[in-house]
Amino acid sequence: MTGEISLDGVYLPTLLLLAIAALILTYGLTRVIAAMGLYRFVAYRAIVDLSLFILLLGAIAFFLPQTGIRL
Fold first, then answer.
1. How confident is the model at residue 2, as a pLDDT?
2. 3-state DSSP assignment of residue 37
3. Which of 5, 6, 34, 59 has the lowest CB atom count within 10 Å?
4. Who's near 48: CB < 8 A, 6+ residues apart?
5. What sections of the chain are H helices per DSSP?
6. pLDDT tens sequence across 25-68
7. What is the pLDDT at residue 65?
C-alpha cells in the first residue's frame, strides 16, 4: 500500500480514505445496533462507537491488501 492516492492532482493519504470508509461503516453499524436496542446494555455509548470505528478501521487496513486491491 502506498502512502498517497492522487485524485485529480490532489494527493490524499491512504489512511484518510480508509478512515472515511470506516466512518461510513460505523454509522451504518450503529444504526443497526440502535434499531435492535442493544445500546441499553452499554454504559457509555460514545466509547462503544469509538471502539467500533477503531476496530473497523483496523480490519479494513488489514484485509484490504489481502483482497488484491492496491491503493
1. 60
2. coil
3. 6
4. 39, 42
5. 14-36, 45-63
6. 999 999 999 999 999 999 999 999 999 999 999 999 998 887 77
7. 80
CA distance 57 to 22: 5
Residue 71: CB atoms within 10 A of its CB come to 13
Domain count, the chain: 1
Residue 1: CB partners within 8 Å, gap ≥ 6?
14, 64, 65, 70, 71
Domain of 63?
A: 4-67
C-alpha of 58 from chain center: 8
Q: Using an 8 Å Cβ cutoff, are 27 and 53 in contact?
A: no
Partners of 12 in beta bridges: 5
